[in-house]
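Bumping with the actual sequence this time:
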Amino acid sequence: MAVIGGGISGLAAAWYVKQAAPQTTVTVFEGSPRLGGKLAVGEVGGVQVDLGAESILNRRPEAVDLVRAVGLAEDVVHPASISASVWSRGELVPMPKGHLMGIPADPAVLAGLLSPAGLKRAESGPSLPSRARLRAEAETDDVAVGTFVADRFGPEVVDRLVEPLLGGVYAGHAAEISLRAAVPALVPAYESGEPLDEAVARILGAQPAAESAKTSPDTAPSPTPTPVFAGIRGGIGRFPTALAQACEAAGIEIRRTAMVRELSRTPDGWRLVSGPVPAAEAHAFDAVIVAVPGTPAARLLQDAAPVAAAELAGIEYASVALATFVFDDAALPGGSGFLVPPSDGRFIKASTFSSEKWSWLAESAKGRTVVRASVGRHRETADLQRDDAELAALALADLRTALGRPDALGTPLDAHVQRWGGGLPQYAVGHVARVARIREAVASQPGLAVCGAAYDGVGIAACVASARRAAREITQEERLAT
């Protein structure tokens, strides 16, 4: 069988297939020279750092379990600092506790973050709709998170907390992101009309708030007995390298710079055409897992699964950039970093004090300070058109302003800008239903499965879970089980 895509989803899918069906021949096709997709490490100022995601959700076991399975168990670490702030109205305000993706169980915790009028609106209690309106809402399949929360607590709760938290995860907008996809724990409240504060209190009482909320890889929620996030000593970017090595050791063939250009059905299975056009090669396989983003997946499936292809083509993506700075022992405030409400009009959307957050990084930095800032939101691409030097300079200016001094941090010893074009799929209202239609169409084609960030979650753990699901679908078919 073949796996198209050598990101973390594709590599994990290949691994799981081989574990479930050792006799199966598995080949991974990756179009670029590098494996790992949006996970990568690099050297900045003589320090090895992550250039993509720097943490894994620890409370969801799939990814951490796989990290351990491929030989990195001894290098699994947890953040040294998990308190975060919100840079709001010119001040760094501590992140409130007792919320679910910014939605409070008690609006009083938002004092200091909201304006007096905004706090009064939130504390006045969720405005309970009429029974007729509740019935109408219950019949609506989905709603934007921002719309749902603003209707209950007012727009400031969305602008000051929900928006930056969702922006950290999806680089999107609260007024467009699906409640069912982003905060599924609140769907019963949406359907029943349960007061939102009561619903959040019930959810937070049933499990730690951090487990219920999806959070940015650049921020962390309040402490809980079990660490919410995990990292890897030396960087999360080591994970795909170790996974690829484990795959090859298990007999999986990985072909780099082998972009799959065509995918079509044959009487016996599937035909792939890969490689540069002048020397493109055709291959025959009995099964295929497509583990590439929505747009290339749509192109590959347009003939074999046109309904799935049309739905995949409708998933929009956001581009982002990460500016990483290394300073000579710069002073930082406490905590792991801060989020930025887009309504404040800043250049950056978040910052991580990486050498404060990760002890392993502080040790390897040997007295140097590592800070990174993220830039870019869905459909807001003008800032990403700047060259690396200008983007880094503007990000650094925002960091200094946030810290309250034009000379804060000093002069960087080094800086690096990493761009992730089309890096984050947007889970628009109706996304869960869209994914159901994609999977139904794909399931109608024997020996075909899909996985990746476009479906059930953009985090590493969700991608690994998606890969495991695709592998299970393929290996449960009789052709691979015999």
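The tokens above came from a reply further down the thread. The CA atoms of residues 28 and 254 lie 5 Å apart.
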